[in-house]
Write a structure and sequence with these properties.
191 residues; mainly alpha; Rna Polymerase Sigma Factor, Chain: A; Arc Repressor Mutant, subunit A; 2 domains; elongated
Length: 191
């Protein structure tokens, strides 16, 4: 800022950046409806459009000083919105591709359900599971959870362990269950 001389009639001159200081909240509020219309027109889904505009708002807030230094704040902000909408479209395509790939894959053979369903004597399986629960409760629980169709990350989260640990415990529990079933079959055959 410059200080005026006693004879100057101009008064104080402020920094051009300070003159452009616009309250972010007021700017966002005034531009939000237009951005939302644009996003909804491109995305054809109101919740996705709202998310895209909110993500753009966060990005714009982070870059607010840069926006103020740009030649046209509205153009800068609109580019941020446009990029957020494009990101949402790309994410939508990625999600749809993943869903298509998952739908095309056959059910994972390692869930344990098919293996246990092939066992004929359900009473023997129940007794073996009870024995496994006494020997190693966590392995028995993980085998039961896999029978219910849960994936390893879900099991890990539910039990507070890593998904790789859940996979290892399932493998160990399944082997122990097989051993206990074989052992009970041999004992019944010798009786």
């Amino acid at each position: 800022m410059t200080t005026p001389n006693p004879g100057d009639s101009q008064g104080l001159q402020s920094d051009p950046i300070d003159a452009l200081r616009v309250d972010f909240a007021a700017f966002f509020t005034s531009e939000h409806p237009g951005w939302l219309r644009y996003a909804q027109q491109r995305l054809r889904h109101r919740p996705d459009a709202e998310d895209a505009v909110q993500n753009a708002g966060v990005t714009l807030y982070r870059k607010w000083d840069r926006a103020l230094r740009s030649a046209d704040i509205k153009a800068f902000a609109f580019k941020v919105v446009k990029d957020a909408v494009t990101d949402t479209l790309r994410e939508r395509v990625r999600t749809e591709d993943k869903a298509r790939k998952l739908a095309a894959q056959p059910e994972s053979p390692d869930t344990g359900r098919a293996e246990l369903d092939r066992l004929d004597d359900r009473d023997a399986v129940d007794r073996a599971m009870a024995q496994l629960a006494e020997i190693s409760p966590i392995q028995a629980e993980i085998v039961r959870m896999r029978q219910a169709g849960l994936k390893y990350p879900q099991i890990g989260e539910a039990l507070g362990i890593a998904h790789t640990t859940a996979r290892t415990y399932y493998s160990l529990g399944w082997r122990a269950l097989q051993y206990l079933l074989d052992l009970s079959t041999h004992q019944e055959g010798n009786s």
